Amino acid sequence: MKKILLIAALAIGFTSQAQLPANSPAPDFTVTDLNGNTHHLNDYLAQGKTVILDISAAWCGPCWAYHNSGSLDDVYETFGQGGSDEVVVLFVEGDSVTPVEMLYGTGTDEYGRVPQGNWVENTPYPIIDSGLIADLYEITYFPTVYRICPDGIVNEIGSASATSIRNGINSNCVTTPLVGLSNFPHSNATEFRSCVNSGALVTKVRNLGTNTMTSATIVLKENGNPIETKNWTGNTTQFNTATITFTSATLTPGATYVAEVTSVNGGSPLHPEQAIGDIAVNLAQVATSTELTLNIFTDEYPEEIKWRVKNGAGTVIANGGPYEGENSTMITETFSVPAGTADDCYRFELQDTYGDGWGIGATQHGVQIFNGDALIFEKFTNDAFTTLPVLAAFKTQVVLGVGEFDSNAFAIYPNPSNGLFNIRTTSSATILVSDLTGKTVYSGSNINDGAVLDLTALQTGMYIAKVKTATTETVEKLIIK
């Protein structure tokens, strides 16, 4: 359904034009980008630069997919102003009826079409809002990507990869290959999710340099402090990515983790600021209730949206969708997780029956899960997908069934308290207290009747106490007020 609407929208704008023929002289233009900078095509060509034009529309799905592929980012960072300054990369909003706010991910055009997302955010090269260029180059479909050589000859190159663009320029536009930059590692942000407070963090280093990356030193930092140094060797050519896995370690909830490339091929990175990659560490939060609330933020096509929850064994324990009715809205549902006798780790899967994800529309798209009033999981996305799995979305901890707890054998009181809890027990107890992220904040053994559990050093809030005695094993919620 989405594809049909897209084709119809294209026909509205371009029924009277024909695409610019191959090997044509490039029509000159002078335009201003969103930041107020002027771009004159013939000036760039006179400087011996090749110009790459991505002529797209903010509402166009294939345009958004190519934009997010990162191909033009790589070309710009390597050969553009971000690199050796041999190539100019320009993004052109080519639909004259598209208001400029759609480039920022908001608003609609006169046909009711909505933006695919925020085109400006994280785009390093200039963005131009100009239907003039689309008219000059006789655009008949979006996206249309052109290569304009320094001799002024223009050819369409399709949604080309960075490697293809580089090779095309070297073969058709210049007498000597593009110089680029020699040792240029670019660290990408990565994510780590787990139901336990330990694991092996991963970073991805993309080689934007002309030299093959054969060795690198990468330092893993927690809150700015080095905790591991990795000496990597391999064979990663330009525009390819090396995956570096660190040693499994205990992780601190709430800490900031980065991986920094301090050397490559025996030398310093040319742009050290781009050699630092964030690692988002998301440790699953505990669902202390068996009844959870799910908020689904739909896109323009709720009838294509589905979801499901799987336990650690891969069994589906809850699902929902598709949905009918108003689009781009919030739908609230509840679902249950079983009260188990063992810890479990759950994954959440977003699904789209059409296969282009939850990305159509200017509103946020995704899900939130609440345990009572506490937000324990959220995932928002504009990505294209049929199924988007999120591992370690949330977890449950041991909850014993009715009759397994002998209140005469053990008790913690008062609860809530100011952090001091009295212990009543008929036998020696072991107590393990964790916060809602699963981090252990107290552990004690050989705790006897009449003891006082002192948790006054902890912040106010809810904690989970696992208690084991000779006759009792239970989990209790402790509240510090």
UniProtKB/TrEMBL annotation:
<dbReference type="Pfam" id="PF08534">
    <property type="entry name" value="Redoxin"/>
</dbReference>
<dbReference type="Pfam" id="PF18962">
    <property type="entry name" value="Por_Secre_tail"/>
</dbReference>
<dbReference type="GO" id="GO:0016491">
    <property type="term" value="F:oxidoreductase activity"/>
</dbReference>
<keyword id="KW-0732">Signal</keyword>
<feature type="domain" description="Thioredoxin">
    <location>
        <begin position="20"/>
        <end position="174"/>
    </location>
</feature>
<dbReference type="InterPro" id="IPR026444">
    <property type="entry name" value="Secre_tail"/>
</dbReference>
<dbReference type="InterPro" id="IPR013766">
    <property type="entry name" value="Thioredoxin_domain"/>
</dbReference>
<dbReference type="InterPro" id="IPR013740">
    <property type="entry name" value="Redoxin"/>
</dbReference>
<feature type="signal peptide">
    <location>
        <begin position="1"/>
        <end position="18"/>
    </location>
</feature>
<protein>
    <submittedName>
        <fullName>T9SS type A sorting domain-containing protein</fullName>
    </submittedName>
</protein>
<dbReference type="InterPro" id="IPR036249">
    <property type="entry name" value="Thioredoxin-like_sf"/>
</dbReference>
